[in-house]
Design a protein that fits this description.
Elements lengths: L8 E7 L7 H11 L3 E13 L2 E7 L2 H12 L6 E4 L5 H13 L4 E4 L14 H11 L5 E2 L3 H8 L7 H13 L4 E5 L10 E5 L2 E5 L12 H14 L7 H22 L20
Parallel strand pairs: 1-2, 1-4, 4-5, 5-6, 6-7
Antiparallel strand pairs: 2-3, 7-8, 8-9
Helix pairs in contact: 1-7, 2-3, 3-4, 5-6, 7-8
Length: 277
């Protein structure tokens, strides 16, 4: 895909990550690496590093509304990625703002479980994501623990159990679902894509690395960037499918290149700027 002469403007609505590998900091790196202009609205201040999450401080819904209105009334936003949302008030605030200033594309990464296993939101936050934000999105990108939380079921351990979740996930309202299979064991790392046209396995080899911090954020923000780069006359199904494929290939390379980084003592980040340095 070629980049338009004027880069598209993209927005991440997400929590922070002081270590820079996930959250809005990771999203901004991905957006920038993929030739889009990054903007952001912060939903939570999180004390975390490569080893885990220590504390979460949600930003009040009123302040999130101010950030959104102030930004969206001024800057044309071509695509939005929504990450961590901790309450029903925040979810409805985001929904209402995006209804007033509807971008062309909305991608939801239902961030509820950190890579360390830490649960980041309470039951009300889970309901808010499922009932308010999923129907708003064009694409959702849950991993297996997040899909299980959304559907109040056990985390799948096999591809068969993974596939069994897809009909219920699709029924939640987003037309495109990328169910990420990275938590499965084995040499393969398959994702499952549901579209209005059917279901498809997206196969990929597993990369031998512990640098997995922020991989979910990186994939969803890469999908957002590639969607934002699509021309206005793009065919919806063909080009959404292509954007998801391009994002997966970019993330695969970023994971492979993460060996060149030395960040933290736990799960390090992917190398967002592998094409540059």
């Amino acid at each position: 895909m070629s980049i338009a002469q004027t880069p598209p403007n993209v927005l991440t609505i997400a929590g922070s990550d002081p270590s820079g590998g996930a959250g809005l900091q990771g999203d901004i790196k991905t957006f920038s690496a993929l030739g889009t202009y990054a903007t952001n609205v912060i939903t939570a201040v999180i004390a975390q590093n490569t080893q885990g999450v220590r504390a979460v401080h949600p930003i009040p819904a009123e302040m999130i509304a101010e950030q959104l209105d102030n930004l969206l009334s001024d800057v044309r936003i071509d695509a939005v990625k929504i990450g961590m949302v901790a309450s029903m008030d925040v979810a409805t605030t985001i929904r209402d703002a995006l209804a007033r200033y509807r971008p062309r594309w909305i991608v939801l990464d239902p961030v509820m479980v950190a890579k360390s296993g830490d649960i980041l939101v309470d039951r009300a936050g889970i309901r808010a994501v499922r009932d308010v934000l999923v129907p708003l999105a064009d694409v959702i990108t849950p991993n297996l623990p997040e899909a299980a939380v959304l559907l109040d079921t056990e985390t799948p351990r096999t591809t068969e159990a993974m596939a069994s979740l897809l009909p219920e996930l699709a029924h939640l309202g987003a037309p495109y679902v990328v169910l990420k299979g990275g938590h499965l064991s084995g040499d393969a790392c398959p994702d499952l894509l549901a579209t209005p046209q059917g279901v498809e396995w997206l196969e990929a080899p597993r990369i031998a690395t512990q640098n997995l911090h922020g991989t979910g954020c990186a994939l969803s923000s890469a999908v957002t960037a590639y969607l934002a780069r699509l021309p206005a006359e793009a065919s919806a199904h063909t080009d959404i499918h292509a954007a998801i494929g391009d994002a997966k290939r970019w993330l695969h390379t970023a994971l492979d290149a993460s060996v060149h980084l030395d960040v933290g003592q736990g799960r390090g980040p992917v190398h967002h700027f592998h094409a540059w340095w």
